[in-house]
Every structure is written in C-alpha cells, then in structure tokens.
Write a structure and sequence with these properties.
18% of the residues lie in helices and 20% in strands. The chain has a domain of 69 residues: 3-Layer(aba) Sandwich (Dihydrofolate Reductase, subunit A), CATH 3.40.430. The protein contains two helices and three strands; from the N terminus they run ααβββ. It has a three-stranded antiparallel sheet with strand order 1-3-2, with no helix packed on it. By secondary structure, it is of the alpha+beta class.
Length: 105
C-alpha cells in the first residue's frame, strides 16, 4: 500500500469493520505516533530483560503522548498485554487523583 499515510488511514476508517491494527516495523509505528493517527495502543510486556540495545520501536519522540490505561491482560507465560487509549489534547486521562480501582496496576 502506498501514498499519504493520513489519507490511507482516513479511507480505512470509513470502511466497515472495527479496528485497524498496525503490526509493522518501527518506522511505520513511529509515523502513526508522530502524526497522531493512533487512537489506542496494545503493548506487550514480556518477562525478559534485555541487557543492551537501542529503542528501535518507539524511536525519538518529538512531544509527549499521554495515554490512559484501559485494561491489563495476563497471558499464559507471564506476559502482559497493556491496552492504552490516546488522550487527545484538552482531555485529562483521569477525572481526578487515582482511586483504589487503579491501585492494583
């Protein structure tokens, strides 16, 4: 698929269906983030710590992107799936101080 990324995403959003899933290399994911095209994120946390390496996936960020945690799912081997929603400007991720419902996170 080629062309302007924002136009492609706008066209896909008009089509029937539910979600657009970007399972791609670091540069495409970075473009979605940089252009504000991602509405939510599912981040997989693996129970492994790498001793070295670069952050190729997220890359350099030009501005802060605030996210609101929607859910946490535990998988069979200790992995976590963290589902976040993008908080658009003018919105606060939480109505007030974190309450007890967030303390288990």
């Amino acid at each position: 698929m080629g062309g302007d990324l924002a136009r492609i995403v706008a066209r896909l959003r008009r089509e029937p269906g539910k979600d657009i899933i970007v399972d791609a290399g670091a540069s495409l994911v970075q473009e979605f983030i940089r252009r504000g095209l991602a509405d939510d994120y599912r981040i997989f946390v693996m129970p492994v710590i790498f001793g070295r390496g670069k952050n190729h996936y997220w890359g350099p960020m030009l501005k802060q992107q605030t996210l609101k945690l929607l859910s946490v799912k535990n998988l069979n081997h200790g992995e976590l799936v963290l589902h976040y929603e993008t908080v658009r400007s003018g919105k606060r991720p939480y109505p007030g101080p974190l309450d007890d419902s967030h303390s288990s996170l």
